[in-house]
Design brief:
Layout lengths: L6 H16 L5 H8 L3 H13 L3 E4 L5 E4 L8 H9 L23 H17 L2 H7 L10
Antiparallel strand pairs: 1-2
Helix pairs in contact: 1-2, 1-3, 1-4, 1-6
């Protein structure tokens, strides 16, 4: 089994890490080119991140985007939930029904505990921690 983010989730993390590394307002063109995010998706991703309070964006000639909070205050959970929406088990693993309808199935508790452990881990990891591990920006080829 593989737990993966959607493309938009991966691009959102990439954009946030780039903004944390840049430490200043940057244009969408720079983010797209240097963080390798398709320009057609970047506007939607930045809008979601702005709506979640993670990014501040300004339009116009001197416009661009930057982090709305310090990198040490933005967790991976914040980023992933901004891009992907809130996590939750919605379908029963054992039966074809909405999770939580009727009695929980045999795997319900184990699945919820696993999900809680993942969310707890993501909530403890900040953007700053990843910058400390990679301070030169090598994550972004060409920078």
């Amino acid at each position: 089994m593989r737990l993966e983010l959607s493309s938009e989730g991966r691009y959102a993390l990439r954009a946030l890490l780039y903004l944390a590394w840049a430490e200043e307002r940057v244009t969408a063109g720079m983010i797209s080119a240097e963080a390798h995010i398709p320009r057609r998706l970047l506007a939607r991703i930045l809008a979601r991140l702005t709506h979640a309070g993670l990014v501040e964006s300004e339009q116009g000639r001197a416009g661009g985007s930057r982090l709305a909070r310090p990198a040490n205050e933005i967790t991976l959970r914040d980023a992933v939930e901004a891009a992907e929406g809130p996590f939750g088990v919605t379908r029963c693993i054992m039966q074809n029904r909405a999770c939580g309808e009727g009695a929980p199935c045999a795997l319900h508790e184990a699945w919820e505990e696993g999900q809680s452990a993942i969310l707890e881990y993501l909530g403890a990891q900040t953007l700053q921690e990843f910058l400390i591990q990679n301070p030169s920006g090598e994550t972004f080829p060409g920078t």
